[in-house]
What we know:
It is a single chain. By secondary structure, the protein is mostly beta strands. 5% of the residues lie in helices and 47% in strands. It has 1 helix and 20 strands.
Amino acid sequence: MLEARLGNVVRFEDWPSNFDRCFLIEPGGLTGWFEKPGSRRTEEGRPIGHGLFDAPVWLSGRVVAISGMILAGSPAELVHMQAQLTGLRFQESIRLTVDSADGTTWADVKVLDVQTPPDGVTGTETPFMVQMVAANPRRFGESRLFAGSSVQAFHYGNFDAIPEVTVVGPVSAPYTVASGGRSVTVTQALTSGQTHKIDMATGWVYRNEVLQQSVTSAANVFTIPPGLPTVVTGPSSMTVKVTETFI
């Protein structure tokens, strides 16, 4: 079973319950989702010597395509279903969620192209293709919460996950959240009912959802690798949210 949903707008299926009205995914019609995206690096040759200067390798965006057949109960319904595809917003992010035998994963994408024959075709079926790009090449799955001053956080993905750390007041300052020899130290206290959210992608700290300025004395962010549990320490009111991350 394979099902892909673009927000609440369109649902694509490889074995739909209703063959009289569906966006049918053809065999092999979902590409770029389970495959590893391409990589990029800036190469610079050594002017006097063999080889290149060492440079980091980064993943490119994820390009995803879904192709198949639109099946409708009437020519008029077929035109309406084509309009659902051609009306997809090209400038806005939309969530693509894929259910497969391996579970459910999602990513935020933008539509690059929609191909389907022009309106006015006769009959009740026609081919289609939708191409999308995810600027963030990661796919995400289930989220788990770990609470306490010392937690063993883990996930079942195959790529480092960026945790979201929440601390609930009252908490005196400074306090430190740490893992694997890296840490973020927050110099802003919290009163009862206030919360801090620490974005481990950036080291930014939000108090009650509002970004704060100059409230960290150290911001050595960390990730949660796949596989074995990773110890994260912090205040007793800390909660660590970890979302399965795949590449």
